[in-house]
Write a structure and sequence with these properties.
Strand content: 5-15%
Order of helices and strands: HEHEEHHH
Radius of gyration: 19 Å
Helix content: 25-40%
Shape: globular
Number of strands: 3
Largest sheet: 3 strands, mixed
Strand order of the largest sheet: 2-1-3
Number of helices: 5
């Protein structure tokens, strides 16, 4: 979902998925369960987002000694812009522009970069609504195509605050923001 959103935020239409699936020993039933669930999740996600897996690889036996590394599926999404189409940058434009947050945000930290930085490998990753991701991508692509967006960036690890900071650094200027009541 994040790779799909990254592509759509640029104004490109997400068209295909590639992957690199890294796991421990396939002789370990727990590792095979992780692998099976990852492949099933990838297939289900691609079906819901209507994009095929066009390539990738699987790497097993990734383990120093007896301990398998944590499952590490890596996903890339290929997107295409129409010839001459405008690409939406990450850096916002001149002063006075409004910043809109599209989609839902939830106060989730389980399975996040914040949890990982604290040495916690616990909690569930945020729940993903792939239908909503698909609609959001359609909005981002149409907004870019129609010149309605000056800039766009996905909200992922680090949340809204990090997304705004990355956009500000790219633009070389800050923004004044607030969280509305409710």
């Amino acid at each position: 979902a994040e790779a799909y959103r990254n592509v759509a935020a640029t104004g490109a239409v997400p068209l295909a998925v590639t992957n690199c699936l890294n796991f421990g020993s396939p002789e370990d039933p727990g590792v095979m369960w992780q692998f099976e669930r990852s492949v099933t999740g990838l297939a289900d996600g691609c079906q819901e987002l209507a994009i095929p897996v066009t390539g990738g690889n699987v790497s097993f036996y990734n383990q120093p000694g007896q301990a398998a590394l944590h499952p590490t599926p890596v996903v890339g999404v290929l997107g295409v812009c129409d010839a001459g189409a405008r690409r939406t940058p990450m850096a916002w434009g001149p002063d006075g522009e409004l910043i809109y947050l599209l989609g839902a945000t939830k106060p989730e930290f389980g399975g996040s970069a914040v949890a990982t930085l604290q040495g916690l490998l616990t909690g569930m990753p945020p729940e993903v609504d792939l239908r909503a991701e698909r609609v959001l991508a359609e909005i981002l692509v149409a907004g870019s195509r129609d010149g309605m967006l000056t800039a766009a960036h996905d909200v992922a690890e680090g949340g809204v605050a990090l997304a705004l900071a990355e956009m500000a650094m790219r633009a070389g200027s800050g923004a004044r923001t607030w969280v509305p009541d409710g």
